Amino acid sequence: MSVDPDRLLELFRRHLPLREGSVELAFASGYDAPVWRTEAGYFIVALRLTTFDPVDGVIPLDVREQEVFIGDDRKHAPERWLAYVEGHLRAMPAILAHFDEPDAMMPCDLFVYEAVLADEALQRADDFAAALRDPVRIATMDEAARQAEWRERLEPLGLADHVDEVRAMARASIRLHLSRSEELDEDEDDDDDAEVDEDEGGEDEDDDDDAEVDEDDGDEDEGGDAEVDDDDDEDAEATYKPGQTRLGGAPDLPRDLPWPEVDGVLLTFVAQFDLAGLAGHPAARELPAHGLLSFFYAPIPPDGVRGHPVRVLHFTDLDALARRPVPPGSSR
């Protein structure tokens, strides 16, 4: 036997919309019947996940809609499977609260705990709700899912039996979030309002961008972020010294070092960081304490190259560095 779709729809209607903190789960818009069974026999529910401003709780910051696979009811007794779904929905506020980064969450991420059905001691909706409110049990299932995902990724490489060793090699990374500076917006507004009769000296090719640096150490987030400003106005250029943190534009390189390339393709300069300015941040704990760390990559991989080639360079002698113009053939 299988579950009647109308019963599943009624079950979801009793619980949706539901909200925990600044996140709301509801039916997706534009569906006459947001619950249906596919040709393969699986249940799909059209869901919407909305993240609101955590301060006022009213302004929506992000909306993600998705058709979510709920599970295969045909593998279980209908009443027990419906009890699982109801318990899952009752526990949904706790599941939502479990996620540290709601901005990165999709509706499907909330329905990945079907493993509780393997526990025959769970029969009623109350049983499943209690199990899915248990943070230890949720964390255990999350870890099992991560292990399975790693195995799936490593299997084509012949490393499926070495998941733990590979995961232990994960190192800190820095994620940049660029935002347009208010000062630049004001300058552009002034340009829009002015009439230009003649060229008075060309354009500054480097935008003034503000960047927030988030630290990510691989499997777990240790928190902490820093802000990096890249000011390329004339005053900054006049006092600029090689070795300073810089996002985009022209890098500082040793005079005798060729521009980084892969198979004859010139790489694009991304950013350079004064390591002394990063010292003290958890994500920089394994980085050298001094010098300049520079990043280059290929936006379009060369023919026959898997992935995007990357070059990470560490320069210790800042006095040997000089501003290098971006050569023809490399984007900026």
Biggest β-sheet strands, sense, barrel: 5 strands, antiparallel
Percent helix range:
25-40%
Distance between the termini: 61 Å
Number of helices: 9
How many separate domains make up the residues? 2
The helix/strand order is HEEEEEHHHHHEHEEHEEEEEHEEE
Mean pLDDT reading: 81
| Low-confidence blocks of residues | 194-213, 220-228
Radius of gyration: 26 Å
Fold and architecture overview:
The protein is α+β, with helices and mostly antiparallel strands and 332 residues long. It has two domains: 5-133, no CATH class; 173-191 and 205-323, no CATH class. Helices cover 26% and strands 26% of the residues. Strands 1, 2, 3, 4 and 5 form a five-stranded antiparallel beta sheet that branches. A four-stranded antiparallel beta sheet has the order 9-13-14-15. Strands 6-7-8 form a three-stranded antiparallel beta sheet. The longest helix is centred in the middle third of the chain and has 20 residues, at 135-154. The radius of gyration is 26 Å and the shape is elongated. Residues 194-213 and 220-228 have low confidence and may be disordered.
